[in-house]
Amino acid sequence: MVIVSEGYKFIGAALILALILGIFAHPYAAVPFVVLACYFAYFFRSPAREIVQDVNHILSPADGTVTEITPVGMDDFVGEPCNKIVIFMSVFNVHVNRSPIHGEIKLQRYYCGRFRPAYKDEVGFENEHHLIGIDRGDLRITVKQIAGILARRIVSWVTLDDQLRQGDIYGMIRFGSCLEIVMPERAEILVTKGEKVQGGKTVLGRLESE
Question: Active-site residue among 90, 156, 177, 209?
Answer without folding.
Answer: 177
